[in-house]
UniProtKB/TrEMBL annotation:
Matches recorded under Pfam families: PRC_RimM (PF24986), RimM (PF01782)
Main function: An accessory protein needed during the final step in the assembly of 30S ribosomal subunit, possibly for assembly of the head region. Essential for efficient processing of 16S rRNA. May be needed both before and after RbfA during the maturation of 16S rRNA. It has affinity for free ribosomal 30S subunits but not for 70S ribosomes.
GO CC aspect terms: cytoplasm; ribosome
Gene: rimM
Subunit structure: Binds ribosomal protein uS19.
Keywords: Chaperone, Cytoplasm, Ribosome biogenesis, rRNA processing
Ribosome maturation factor RimM PRC barrel domain residues: 100-163
Full protein name: Ribosome maturation factor RimM
Chief location: cytoplasm
Length: 170
């Protein structure tokens, strides 16, 4: 997330000769792409109008962006992130969170003792894993399941971890 903008993808390559770009999606909502009408490219201060062209291999969306009319112009955007205003985020079901909401949260035990801070969220086959930088300096990986994560409180900026022996050891 950058300010009140959230990254939803990254331009990976030009698509064709007329300036379209192929995007690596960083969202779990493929239905957002056909409805997308404007997007911030990198750190540009104003959004660009865009038009969804379709999906190519591996579910990558293809977009036409305002001001990009040929392959050379599209090539200059390779590697740039695409962002939307946080207000345009897809609504989530209850007890579901965006990664950017979790990163930076204080991790506490059920008694309120500070354990550390959530540094990252790693995808894993069974369940995502919270990477917590502990007060002791090392990192711990905590599966994001109810057995270990008792509560997430976005308003307070904290996540309550129920540690079992060995869970937070280096």
């Amino acid at each position: 997330m950058t300010g009140s903008r959230v990254t939803i993808g990254q331009i990976v390559a030009p698509q064709g000769l007329r300036g379209a770009v192929r995007v690596y999606p960083l969202t779990d909502f493929p239905e957002r792409w056909p409805a997308l009408r404007e997007v911030y490219v990198g750190d540009e201060p104003r959004p660009r109008r865009c038009r969804f062209v379709g999906f190519v291999r591996a579910g990558m969306p293809v977009l036409e962006l305002e001001g990009v009319h040929d392959r050379s112009a599209a090539e200059t955007l390779r590697g740039r992130e695409l962002r939307v205003d946080a207000a345009a985020l897809h609504p989530l079901p209850e007890d579901t969170f965006y990664v950017f909401q979790l990163v930076g949260m204080v991790a506490e035990d059920p008694e309120g003792t500070r354990l550390g801070r959530v540094e990252a969220v790693e995808p894993a086959p069974a369940a995502d894993v919270l990477v917590i930088r502990l007060e002791a300096g090392h990192r711990a990986r905590v599966p994001f399941v109810r057995q270990f994560v008792e509560r997430v409180d976005p308003a307070a900026g904290r996540v309550v971890i129920r540690p079992i022996p060995g869970l937070l050891e280096p």
